[in-house]
């Protein structure tokens, strides 16, 4: 079984239409572009009310198990998938509904440092007391960013039933 060959591009639309190349691993993508890359998965394209509409629009890019349209892509071409998202209604008090969008996984070219500055840390936004509540775009950006530590992790303490030897403080032994 071969690996998925993800497109290398500046954005999701370019990954679908005109990628710079395709690579399975980060080091292969960096070798092809000569610049740093990072792996991202982004939603792109229009929103569809049903899964059937979305599959019809992206025929040939997705595996399809429907009896009348069975398609099995080669494993290296499986970088697209349909995602069900919750779409809020513009009408007040109307219930949200499920919509479908295409998610593209690809190697994004560009500076990896700019990705870290996309959104504030979730814990900082959650603890803010002044100012307006964050909007939906900010919350979405927070959920997509990797977790980053506030400060380096401290060394672990010894357990409740462990003790250090007086003659050898670097050794921890169980205390019965």
Would you mind describing this structure in some detail?
- The protein starts with 5 loop residues before the first strand and ends with a strand.
- It is extended.
- Strands 1, 2, 3, 4 and 5 form a five-stranded mixed beta sheet that branches.
- Helices cover 23% and strands 29% of the residues.
- It has a domain at 112-145.
- The model has no long low-confidence stretch (mean pLDDT 84).
- It has helices at 12-17, 26-33, 51-57, 112-116, 122-127, 136-144; strands at 6-9, 21-23, 37-48, 80-87, 97-109, 162-165, 168-174.
- The chain has 176 residues and is of the alpha+beta class.
- A hairpin with a 2-residue loop joins strand 6 (162-165) and strand 7.
Strand tally: 7
Cα(first) to Cα(last) distance is 53 Å
How much is the radius of gyration in Å?
24 Å
* Overall pLDDT confidence: 84
Q: Specify the overall morphology.
A: extended
Main β-sheet: number of strands, strand sense, barrel status? 5 strands, mixed
Compressed to H and E, one letter per element, the order equals EHEHEHEEHHHEE
